[in-house]
Amino acid sequence: MAVAGNTPTASFLTKIGKMPSAGCRLCKIAREARGESTDGLADETHGHINSAGCEGMATTVMAAHHSIWRHQYDSMHAAQKPKSKLKFVTLDKESNMSTLWRREDFLRICSKEELAKKAQDIEVTIPVKNGQETWYNLDPGSFPVNRSWGRRPDGVAINEALKIVYILEFKRSIDRDEGFLEVKAAEAHEQHKSIIGALKAAAPEWEFEQINFVGSVVESDFYTKLKKLDVQEGKKDKLFADHVTQVCEAHNRVIASFLQQVQGGTRPTTEGSRENIGHNVHV
Ligand SMILES: [Zn+2]
Asked: Which residue of 95, 244, 264, 283 lies most exposed, with the fewest beta carbons within 10 A?
């Protein structure tokens, strides 16, 4: 696996005196192409280029996220104990809280109306974020409830016999940039607050728990989480090994895409960055 700190990001190159500015080159190219100002570019850190916030990397990063998670989710599902009553909800692109509450098993937890009422109470306390303004302005009154129905857990498993619902979240953890991790944690927390909070209020006799999978090879409680999801004891090692492979391969694809873009896409500038991004970069 690549050692994160060695990626020749502008941030890294600036630190070692090989580049004058840490601003993201890929975001800069995207903004220049639109004729926009390149003031206030995000720093080109390892965290930034691994996030959907980077204009040059968003597509690759999202694809990496989906491929790792899809593989893991399907593997956990396939490795369940045969007698488990825990049902993994099959996810597709359209799965969100609204589509879950069209299913009979979820409607047995609580009604749509009851859940909407509780979600509304929580959503109004969560600020309208960048990128949500247009949506909000269309209909400020129904925005909170619409936002709650649009929330999209990465995975959901339901055990009707035990009255437990697990909301699964997956994050690729790639980062040494603490600020970035805080943003990720805040997103997970907001999602948790809205979905779990509303569910607990609407169906107090049920148990709702969020399980966060962080796509990292050092995740120590991976096995504990698999156990909760009724994954067979004997299949855990294989599942973990596969997961690690997936994470590494996805990471390599992300870094390769980044290198290809900075090496191929950097225009001649006063920074002369092109020569500084070595051609013998190992990832
Ligand atoms: Zn960027």
From this structure: 264
| Residues whose Cβ atom is located within 5 A of ion ligand 1 | 24, 26-27, 54
Distance 259 CA to ligand 1 centre (A): 13
Mean of all residue pLDDT scores within the chain: 85
Q: At 114, which amino acid appears? A: E
**13 — pLDDT class (breaks 50, 70, 90):** very high
pTM of the full structure: 0.78
Q: How far is the CA of 253 from the centre of ligand 1 (A)?
A: 16
Q: Which residues contact 118 (CB under 8 A, 6 or more apart)?
A: 197, 198, 199, 201, 202
Judged on CB neighbours under 10 Å (0-12, 13-18, 19+), 194 is buried
Residue 180 has pLDDT above 70, yes or no: no
